[in-house]
Amino acid sequence: MEKLEVVGGKKLSGVLKISGSKNASLPILAASLLSKKKIKLINLPQVKDIKTMLTLLESLGSRVKKVGKKTIIDNINQKKTEANYNIVRLMRGSFLVLGPLLAKFGKAKVSSPGGCSIGVRPIDIHLNALTKLGVNIKIVDGYVIAKAPQGLKGAKIRFPKISVGATENLIIAASLAKGTTILENCAIEPEIKDLTNFLFKIGCNIKWISKRSIRIVGVSEINEATYSVMFDRIEAGTYLIAAAVTEGNLKIKNVNPNILRSEIKILRKIGSKVRIKKNEIHIIGNKNIRSVNIKTAPWPGLATDLQAQIMVLLCRGNKKSTIQENIFENRFMHVSELNRMGAKISIVGNRALIKGNTKFAPAQLMATDLRASVSLILAALSAKGKSVINRIYHLDRGYENIEKKLKKVGAQIRRLN
């Protein structure tokens, strides 16, 4: 099993270009199933989750090929409607094929999803909303078997709570439904806006009518299109935090700073100098890190996918800090590993209490999920000495060429078998 060796204590300095967004690419790839033609996508990140989704599309009958920087998805002969357990179990985003298969064929059989063990992420919001579009659903042997013999029909649907996945699945499904669908209390993460921009480009009749409401008028035909996926805001946020943790000096390019305004506000509050240009963020870390009390929230709040990374930074804060995790109930699994490196963090309910003034010590570490993996890298970069991070297959699901990028800006890091 592969692992990473990190020799910490070095300040990161230089320029990094951010890859395409994994969390935007997954729903866009799922939505490509709506088409019976060719879809060309640019800026897909080269990470394991994207490879898993492309494998799933191929298992459903799509033809996928890469030509230069473009990934071409040809659905001319795509006719299968069953998403296999052996693929779906690898990644929760695979469940997003349910909506487009129902919209296109009126039926789908999709295994219940897998992915990181960061908490119970129920699919009932997806399924209850789909029933309002005329879908009959039953669950048999771990598979969702969904049928809409008369096709999908538009409806007014209000989500009982904000759900990124359910919003994405319903937006995609409603794009081919008969009539008009109104979705209320939608998630509005930038990746969802990227999905709706993609759907508009391929000919869907879709419009945001208020902050969290969207109107979709079903269409009968999907156009061919070429689309460039947005930047990965979680990757960008991770490297911004890496600069702050190591007292570094980084320019982060290929980004939209406005999308990261909550994270930038926190970084400035703890003492980092942050300068913004049109497609660039320049950050200089400060030796004296101020403590803050923060909480995760749906966008435009602090991303839960950056909670573990910011925790590392607050461990070095000058006083006590707290992080309140409001999205997932089991997203503190990295805490025990950080404590092994010298942090003093205790968990009370959904709050992490961080004592601060930590000088991280190198250690043998075990990654538990995708974002926890990268938080251990950040802590290792701060520790003087050699750390080894095991079970890094989680890391490869969401970060493209992380060792190469970190080496480029001065980190001493290498992959070991």
3D structure, described in words:
This protein is of the alpha/beta class and 417 residues long. It folds into 2 domains: 3-19 and 231-416, UDP-n-acetylglucosamine1-carboxyvinyl-transferase, Chain, CATH 3.65.10.10; 22-218, UDP-n-acetylglucosamine1-carboxyvinyl-transferase, Chain (Alpha-beta prism), CATH 3.65.10. Helix content is 30%, strand content 26%. The protein has 14 helices and 24 strands. The protein has helices at 22-31, 48-59, 85-88, 98-105, 124-131, 164-174, 190-201, 233-245, 261-269, 307-315, 335-340, 370-382, 393-396, 402-408, and strands at 3-8, 13-17, 38-42, 63-67, 70-74, 82-83, 107-111, 136-140, 143-147, 156-158, 180-184, 205-210, 213-217, 225-228, 249-253, 273-277, 280-284, 293-295, 321-324, 345-348, 351-354, 364-366, 385-390, 412-416. Strands 22-23-1-24 form a 4-stranded mixed beta sheet. A 4-stranded mixed beta sheet has the order 2-15-17-16, covered by helices on one side. The protein has a 4-stranded mixed beta sheet with strand order 4-5-3-14. Strand 16 and strand 17 form a beta hairpin. The radius of gyration is 22 Å and the shape is elongated. The N and C termini lie close together (6 Å). Residues 115-121 have low confidence and may be disordered.
